[in-house]
From TrEMBL:
<keyword id="KW-0677">Repeat</keyword>
<feature type="binding site">
    <location>
        <position position="353"/>
    </location>
    <ligand>
        <name>Fe cation</name>
    </ligand>
</feature>
<keyword id="KW-0802">TPR repeat</keyword>
<keyword id="KW-0479">Metal-binding</keyword>
<protein>
    <recommendedName>
        <fullName>Lipopolysaccharide assembly protein B</fullName>
    </recommendedName>
</protein>
<feature type="transmembrane region" description="Helical">
    <location>
        <begin position="6"/>
        <end position="25"/>
    </location>
</feature>
<dbReference type="Pfam" id="PF14559">
    <property type="entry name" value="TPR_19"/>
</dbReference>
<feature type="topological domain" description="Cytoplasmic">
    <location>
        <begin position="24"/>
        <end position="381"/>
    </location>
</feature>
<dbReference type="InterPro" id="IPR011990">
    <property type="entry name" value="TPR-like_helical_dom_sf"/>
</dbReference>
<dbReference type="Pfam" id="PF13176">
    <property type="entry name" value="TPR_7"/>
</dbReference>
<feature type="binding site">
    <location>
        <position position="364"/>
    </location>
    <ligand>
        <name>Fe cation</name>
    </ligand>
</feature>
<keyword id="KW-0408">Iron</keyword>
<keyword id="KW-0812">Transmembrane</keyword>
<feature type="binding site">
    <location>
        <position position="350"/>
    </location>
    <ligand>
        <name>Fe cation</name>
    </ligand>
</feature>
<dbReference type="Pfam" id="PF18073">
    <property type="entry name" value="Zn_ribbon_LapB"/>
</dbReference>
<keyword id="KW-0472">Membrane</keyword>
<feature type="binding site">
    <location>
        <position position="367"/>
    </location>
    <ligand>
        <name>Fe cation</name>
    </ligand>
</feature>
Length: 381
């Protein structure tokens, strides 16, 4: 039986026609899907630009449903949830991304970083730490280390904070020696509170060697030496401020005057304080000079000299406190009013967030910044 090639010839056009129709149907479906996804995406973007986050989230959810394989839409949706404080939903979005097997390694690292931020914003510090540790060796490594440093500072885990700061210092983020010195001072404070003064002294000396231009290690070391009954050593420690950190003298002026009196070196301390005041006038330095002055009239004259150079309500109040008024029986009332008025002026203010406090902080309790408090009071800024 011979094969009839007529059917083959007739089948080619039919097969071609069916293939063409199939391709047209696929293209049409693809165009419909592509039109639907960008439409929802751009709608969400428009809502986002108009700060209509609820509508933006609905639009992005629609876009993700139309095209569930698009990772960028998942990232956008997760970030929106995080910004709105819906951390649980943000975590679900980013965990869903992490579970996908078709993600490239950069996308997976990005999802891991986003997940760590979700945990961090939600206050789940242990889970955030675990997620951030997984970013070692990725393009998000430096950002992860900075976030870890913030976590360890907030939890007062100074040992781990020191480790991370050392790694950051060895990279392109500059020197972290001053911050590491703060960590050592915190550890020394804990050791002293626990009764281990020897460890505290060694730790403070290590901090002073690590950051020679830092003020805190020397002040903390002098305070501890004074508590241990070593006023002479404490005074010598504070005298180093003149060379390494003269800007910190106002914070140590009162302690310096007390140590000078107990060790009989008033003149040495006075010379240092007067030189500091001449370079940069400060109420705290004046108070220390007045304390060391033997003549009460000469002591009060320092307030007058300060008023000649600066309009200072604090100095005026201090001067009036030692003067005789015509109506002396009203003196207490006037002084009380002045003291009340000067209280806000004697506070310290964080230069980073504006948080005010009656005491000087090395670590701002408001914004967690280090060394953000100037060494001078609000009136002197």
């Amino acid at each position: 039986m011979e094969f009839d090639f007529t059917w083959v010839l007739l089948g080619f056009p039919i097969a071609f026609t069916l293939g063409w129709l199939a391709s047209r149907l696929d293209l049409r479906q693809l165009r419909i899907e592509n039109r639907q996804a960008p439409k929802a995406y751009f709608k969400g973007l428009n809502f986002l630009l108009n700060e209509q986050q609820d509508q933006a989230i609905d639009a992005f959810i629609e876009a993700v449903q139309n095209d569930p394989d698009t990772s960028e839409l998942h990232f956008a949706l997760g970030n929106l949830f995080r910004r709105r404080g819906e951390y649980e939903r943000a975590v679900r979005v980013h965990e869903h991304l992490m579970s996908r097997g078709d993600l490239t390694q950069p996308e997976r690292d990005r999802a891991q970083h986003a997940l760590a931020l979700d945990f961090l914003k939600a206050g789940l510090l242990d889970r955030a730490e675990t997620a951030l540790r997984k970013l070692e060796g990725t393009s998000f490594e430096e950002e992860a280390r900075l976030a870890l440093l913030s976590i360890y500072e907030r939890s007062r885990d100074w040992a781990n904070a020191t480790e991370i700061a050392a790694r950051l210092g060895s990279s392109s983020h500059g020197s972290f020696s001053t911050r590491q010195a703060h960590y050592l001072c915190e550890q020394a404070s804990a050791a002293a509170a626990a009764g281990d003064t020897a460890k505290a002294l060694n730790t403070l000396r290590e901090a002073a060697a690590m950051a020679p231009a830092a003020t805190r290690p020397l002040i903390d070391l002098a305070k501890l030496q004074n508590q241990l009954g070593q006023p002479q050593d404490a005074l010598q420690t504070l005298l180093k401020l003149k060379e390494v950190a003269p800007q910190g003298l106002p914070l140590a002026a009162g302690l310096l005057a007390n140590l000078a009196q107990s060790s009989g070196q008033q003149q040495t301390a006075q010379d240092l304080l007067k030189a500091s005041y001449a370079q940069s006038p400060s109420i705290d330095v004046i108070e220390a000079i007045v304390k060391l002055e033997k003549d009460p009239a000469a002591a009060r004259q320092w307030y007058v000299q300060h008023l000649e150079r600066h309009t200072s309500l604090v100095a005026a109040s201090k001067w009036i406190a030692g003067e005789k008024l015509e109506d002396e029986h009203h003196h207490a009332l006037v002084q009380r009013a002045l003291d009340q008025a000067t209280k806000p002026l004697m506070r310290y203010r964080c230069a980073a967030c504006g948080f005010e406090a009656t005491q000087h902080f090395w670590h701002c309790p408001g914004c967690q910044a280090w060394d953000s408090y100037p060494t001078r009071r609000i009136e002197e800024l």
